[in-house]
Amino acid sequence: MIFTRRSLIGSGLAAAGALTLPGIGDPARARPRQGGSIRVAMQSSSTADTLDPAKGAMATDYVRHFCLYSGLTRMEADLRPRPFLAQSIASADRITWNIALRRGVRFSDGRELTSADVVHSLRRHLDPKLGSKVASIAKQFAEVRADGRHGLVIRLTGANADLPAILSQSHFLIVPADEEKPTGNGSGPFRLADFRPGVRTVVTRNPEYWRDGEPYLDRIEIIAIPDEIGRVNALLAGDVQLIIAVQPLSTRRIERSSQHGILTTPSPLYTDLIMRQDQLPTGNADFVAAVKHLIDRPLIKRALFRGYATIGNDQPIPPFHPYYNPAVPQTVLDLDRAKWHVARSGLKGVRLPIYCSPAAAGSVDMASVLQEYGAQAGLEFAVNRMPADGYWSTHWMKHPMSFGNTNPRPTADLVFSQFFRSDAEWNESGWKNPRFDMLLTEARAEADEARRKELYGEMQQLVHDHCGVAIPVFINMLDGHDRRLKGMTAIPLGGLMGYRFAEYAWWDA
Amino acid sequence: MSGSAPHSAMFGVLPLIGKRFASALITLLLVSAVVFTISGLLPGDAAQETLGQSATPEQVAALRHEMGLDRPALTRYFAWLGGIVQGDPGQSLVANLPVREVIAERLPNSLMLAAFTALVSVPLALAIGIASAISRGGRLDRTLNVLTLTAVAVPEFLVATLGVLIFSVKLLWLPSIALVSEDASLWDTVRSCALPVLSLSVVVIAQMARMTRAAVADQLDRPYVEMARLKGVPFRRVVLFHVMPNAVGPIVNAVALSLSYLLGGAIIVETIFNFPGLASLMVNAVTSRDMPLLQACAMIFCAIYLMLVLVADVVAILANPRLRAQ
Amino acid sequence: MSAHVSVRNLRIVAGSKAIVDGVSFEIARGKVLALIGESGSGKTTIALALMGHSRFGATISGEVLLGETRVDQLDEAGLQALRGRRVAYVAQSAASAFNPSRTIMSQVTEPLLVHRLASKADAEVRAVDLFRALALPFPESIGARYPHQLSGGQLQRLMAAMALITRPELVILDEPTTALDVTTQVEVLKAFKAAIASVGATAIYVSHDLAVVAQMADQILVLNQGRTKEQGAAEQILHAPTDDYTRTLMAAASPTERSAPAVVAGDALLKVEGVHAAYGRLPVLHDISLQLARGATLGVIGESGSGKSTLARVIAGLLPRSAGSVRLGGEELPKGIDGRSREQFRRVQLVFQNADTALNPVHTVGQTLARPLAFYHGLKGAEAKAEVARLLDMIRLPADLATRNVRQLSGGQKQRVNLARALAARPDVLLCDEVTSALDTVVGAAILELIDELRRELGIATVFISHDISTVRAFCDQVLVLYGGTAVEQADAAAFARGVHHPYTDLLMHSVPEMRAGWLEQAVTRKAVLPSEVGDDLCRFLPRCPVAIDGRCNAEAAPLRAGDGFALLCHHELQTLRELTA
Amino acid sequence: MNHVFSFARSLPLSGRIGLGLVLFWLAVALVGPLLAPHPVGAFVDQDVFSPVTASFPLGSDYLGRDVLSRLMWGARYTVFLGAGAAMLACLIGTSLALTAAVRGGWVDEVLSRAMDTLISIPSKIFALVMVAAFGSSLGLLLTITAITYVPGNFRIARALAVNVVSLDFVTVAQARGERGLHIALREVLPNMIHPLLADFGLRFVFIVLLLSGLSFLGLGVQPPHADLGSLVRENMSGLVDGAPAIVVPAIAIATLTVGANLLIDSLKPVEKQG
């Protein structure tokens, strides 16, 4: 693994080198061993389950894709990307990037992975007919071309220091160029044994995986149990060995069992209250301020998440993030201040529906909490719980007040540009701040780490002060696992080690 | 008095089947129209749902065209109808597979679950129903009445979860999820189905038992029962050989209705036990706006319902010589 | 010699009410005791007590002795062994006492099989022998049939076969011929008598019909309200009754001729011409014509299935006629219900046979009577109330009955209310369909009297439908005899009494039992002479006619022969008929 | 009040128990919300799934809310929504059944086919589609649950009505010249009341069950309110510990539904009082 100096600067990382990741409760000395077959229960699966990384829409898809395919880079627990299929990734201007591929990597059908496959895998996102989930991100690929059998060049439409991080997402995993649509034939740690959309996926160890000695497990069966209690029961009954998305209320049950453990992943995942700035009465700055002061964050952390959350401050960068700005003052529950804002806004006694849904985790209960305090400050909120089905297309961002839910993004730039830039499609609250937009573009191209942190810090202050989005807490992701399953650590990009547990986990039987 | 011509059971049944077949076709048509209409009220379409939040308008338009969703609703409906008439339910918009294949994967599971449940619940329900009919007004009758009512009223998810807690988590006897696959042995499959079957049975047993009780109690008041007793026929024999043949019509009808519930109504049980059945497939089809799949599921539920009712009627006719000869 | 059956001080209590109280009797081996009484007299209850059975959880006390066995002290197993083996039961309605879902053979042989008295094959042989002895058609194959495929008379005989197959010591016959037509009754009674005699069983015959009892019984016990009224040899009870109640029963059994049949001249009020009707494709009425003047009474007689009730339904419009006309006061009535005016509905009122089903059980008497008052005459409130009271008075019921629910009435009271409801419309034509057949003789006689009185007072024209030829003869100005949907004879009362009759009318008249012992033995059941089927235009009675003429009756339609005040359809000359039916 | 007592005395023991339970839940549904110690959505307990204590007589729920207060509100939804939907279902089903039975012919055929259509669409999936299409509201819930049980009631009511229509007194009414409406309402309907009541009782149970099933699928009464079934559902994680938060609503459902049916079963036709 060779990192050039430019790449170090380009990827915005100060240090290189492998971090040893201590597993939960097992001594660092314990050596991973091979063998073992486990079953994993995810949250949902349906006929839309896919083998195409570009179309991955759910955690179940991501896990499946990371099992079958490899990507150019890989994000580690410290939220820094490392070259993976790429041997090196470098850029001088953060516009044109040169990538050298690892040699001798083979697809499971035996064919060697070459630059043609990578070019195909990146370019296909630009085809609207494919329906790629990251089409809007891929739009910045002005040009992707092969540079010999094992090299390629990517030219971006604008400077972006985060390209290595972007390429670590499951959607940019490499698929063979000679297949019309991906069939599971990849260069990942596992090979496809059985795939039934909506039922299960079975993968078995890839004996010719390009990383020596990996993976450790022989076989993984991926199923989905939508009912959380059913999922926990299945774990406790020994029918599955690993489950995703444990509710905080269930942690007691799992911890009481001597054979099972919880993997807690503090993450930038949040459920936010959206107050549209282009609609009334939510466009009123005092109203927004009042609502932000009506949120009992410690109560939400305690009652809704049983402590498995980090208190948020109405901006999307969590305290454990390298770019977190601790100088932004914490908003707290302050009824007097809220009443003062309500009085100033002239909206006392206003009746307003809040749209929430099980689709946005915890939003229904958050709405109930807000409703309680709103009544004390003279705001009458009506909780409108919508079914998960159709929530995102019909209700999210469509009403003055609704809830959204944002999954962890690999970079600060992505979350800011997708959710907060004035012209972003998902500018949830519809706020417009030219200063913010300017800072965002500047930070993206900025190579100097300290300067970058400064820019992101100011953006956090702007969002906190002016944006119509309230972020009460960052939600920890909780996975439950059999204690014999080792090597599990937190990667804050998602549950199950950022969906990549298959590459790390081993069975200690 | 009729002549001495031999009466063939088929004489009574064949025209009925013919008539039912015709009206079943009409009902199926109605169902397809109703499902198409109400699903048209749903916000969004398959293209939008497939692409999700992040889709660009061009992507949605392209996929819409690919899926044929840019054609007017009526055109799509009749195209679908035309396909059905030729025996082709079309292509699933989301799974990108023929609907036939998607359903072929799930239907056997649903039928198996229903069959197991029927196997367990029907004899039990009959036993309970007959027992309470015989002891009409007695202590046993009253106890069974309260028990069956309670069983109906307890939410299915509570029964299912309690079952899992006791038999899977506590006792480790049964799997907590249904692991139905081709490579599972028959014994594993049966074990896998045990808890789903238990949960479904609780609901349907109560319904069938109550109907059985009513049907048997009704017959027990008939003069022929007294006559049989006065011939010195033991009570057990009276119930089995005299009452049952006459009560079988209404009972089979109740059983048919309950069994039809086992397919579409199993959604909660399918969700809790991760059972790959048709109901969750249909919910899937709703959420992903996969109309051809949704329509096909609705057709299947309807057809099975109609078939069960028809079978019930045929059984009722075969059990009743008066109807048989008509 | 001690009695075969001995009952001492029998008392049967249901709830707090004694249905049977202090009844004692003895029957010698091989003799027949008749239990006589009206409904509610406890006669069936006593009969069932002899098998240790009681309905509705009633308790039996007293002593019931069959030979040496104390039936009242047997446990369930003992009773099971007794029933069907030593004591057998023939129920009133064979149609409902046979299990509709099982073959005749399986039910007839069941007593033998459950008591393990014979193998299945032996049992079937014995059953066929009995079928033959009871003169059933196709004795070899009839066992394979189901109850609904057989006629009432056949079922009743099969029920006897089921009872006698174990050769029981005691047979209990509970009104076994009440539901049958008279012509069938004769055959069934004969078959019973012979079969019981051949088995040598002791029998108890429960009936309300004195004339039938006269044919069957050696001894008679008269019951009223669960108590013995009179008990003795059949001869003595029938011809020299000592008890008043017995005498009342006797009187009601022989209807008195009406004083003066008031033939009212004038234009026909109701005129039916050439009416045909069918249920679906099955024709039921064929070319019926009749005329009825204001205040006149037409009696329609025939067996079940003759189309007599259908005639009433066609006139009322419930069954649209397929051809012909029905005129009321010169005005043609629409075929069916649709299109008839409220006035037309009002003028023709139908009184149904069975008041139990003809009255809506959820309504009170007052509501039942008030509806036609409101519907036809717009009477409401106090006015309606007064009219209801007047109607109740007219049918001899106390006014406070108006608040009572119809379910709480006795059979006779129900039939009166049923009648009063029709009268409330103030009709011109009253169609009475077997209004007395479900009632006890005494009650039925009272209803008849009432109808007759009202008819005279109100001048209502009445169509009186009955299967009972003696009632019709006593009660009507004109008689219409229906057979198979065809009017075979039509006569005014005087001509009908004079005595030239169609062979079918003749058969009906001779089938009515007379109240003398030995009538049954003398009654000749004459066989049909021509083995033939009914052709479309041929005489419908041909298959049963004992005097049919080969080459004519089975070749061409019967001609209409008219005489003084009568007309009939027959190939025989009137003179010949007079001789044949004399 | 006297009426209630004399009515209660006329009932058998099971009927009195049923009447007692029904009256109890009716009272809770009517005045419970007034007596509730805490607002329905108030977060009053630091802990969750508390056992029975003096301050929380029925413990606290999964968010630390007072179970007693939530139950008192929840009973209102279950009792009124359940009874309302059952009544609506029976009203529509029976009206259609009477129409079918009295008119017969093609009317009967069309209605029967329509009911077959409705019955063969799985109710929970139907509810899912409707809620997704129209948004969740009490009115829609009522409509969905009612529509779901119309065909069942129709089948039973039609069978009863066809039987009654074949009786003589209906023929008498026809011969009197009565219109279909009178025949249906005055002659036929009163004779079906008892079995219809029994059916109503059973439908009520099924609707309570369906409502809880809908809460499982995330459809149902709007928070912070919850019907009894939703109370069970939202506190499922307390099941292992037997928390009162789940046990009490489950018992509430059982007593309410069983009580209603015991009462209805004991209402024998009027002749008893004669």
TrEMBL record, chain B:
Subcellular location per the Swiss-Prot or TrEMBL entry? Cell membrane
Q: Give the stretches traversing the membrane.
A: 21-42, 111-134, 146-169, 189-209, 251-273, 293-319
Q: Which domain of life is it from?
A: Bacteria
Membrane topology type: Multi-pass membrane protein
- This protein's GO CC annotations: plasma membrane
List the InterPro entries.
Answer: BPD_transp_1_N, MetI-like, MetI-like_sf
- What is any Pfam family matched here? BPD_transp_1_N
Its chief place of residence is membrane
A GO biological process this protein is involved in? Answer: transmembrane transport
Q: Where is the ABC transmembrane type-1 domain?
A: 107-312
- Return the PANTHER family for the record: DIPEPTIDE TRANSPORT SYSTEM PERMEASE PROTEIN DPPB-RELATED (PTHR43163), PEPTIDE ABC TRANSPORTER PERMEASE PROTEIN (PTHR43163:SF3)
Q: Which SUPFAM superfamilies match?
A: MetI-like
Organism whose genome encodes this protein: Novosphingobium taihuense
Q: Which family does it belong to?
A: Belongs to the binding-protein-dependent transport system permease family.
Q: Which UniProt keywords apply?
A: Cell membrane, Membrane, Transmembrane, Transmembrane helix, Transport
Q: What is this protein called?
A: Peptide/nickel transport system permease protein
Automatic annotation (TrEMBL), chain C:
Q: What is its main location?
A: membrane
Every ABC transporter domain range? 5-250, 270-509
Could you state a single Gene Ontology molecular function term? ATP binding
What Pfam families does the record tag this protein with? ABC_tran, oligo_HPY
Which UniProt key words apply to this protein? ATP-binding, Nucleotide-binding, Transport
Gene Ontology CC terms, in alphabetical order: plasma membrane
- A Gene Ontology biological process term: peptide transport
* Regions crossing the membrane: none
Q: Where in the cell is it found?
A: Cell inner membrane
The way it spans or sits in the membrane comes to: Peripheral membrane protein
- Family per similarity comment: Belongs to the ABC transporter superfamily.
Stated name of the protein: Peptide/nickel transport system ATP-binding protein
**Organism name:** Novosphingobium taihuense
Give the source lineage, highest ranks first. Answer: Bacteria, Pseudomonadati, Pseudomonadota, Alphaproteobacteria, Sphingomonadales
From TrEMBL, chain D:
Cite the InterPro entries for this sequence: BP-dependent_transpt_permease (IPR050366), MetI-like (IPR000515), MetI-like_sf (IPR035906)
- Keyword hit for Cell membrane: yes
**Segments crossing the lipid bilayer:** 77-104, 125-150, 196-222, 242-264
Tell me which stretches of the chain form a coiled coil. Answer: none
Highest rank taxon of the organism: Bacteria
Q: Which UniProt keywords apply?
A: Cell membrane, Membrane, Transmembrane, Transmembrane helix, Transport
Biological process terms in GO annotation: transmembrane transport
What GO cellular-component annotations does this UniProt entry give? plasma membrane
User: Which residues does the UniProt record annotate as the domain ABC transmembrane type-1?
Assistant: 75-264
Q: What does the UniProt entry say about where the protein is found?
A: Cell membrane
Pfam families listed in its UniProt record = BPD_transp_1 (PF00528)
As for membrane topology, the entry says:
Multi-pass membrane protein
Q: Which residues form the signal peptide?
A: none
Where is it predominantly found?
A: membrane
Please report which protein family the annotation says this sequence is part of.
Answer: Belongs to the binding-protein-dependent transport system permease family.
**UniProt name for this protein:** Peptide/nickel transport system permease protein
Organism annotation: Novosphingobium taihuense
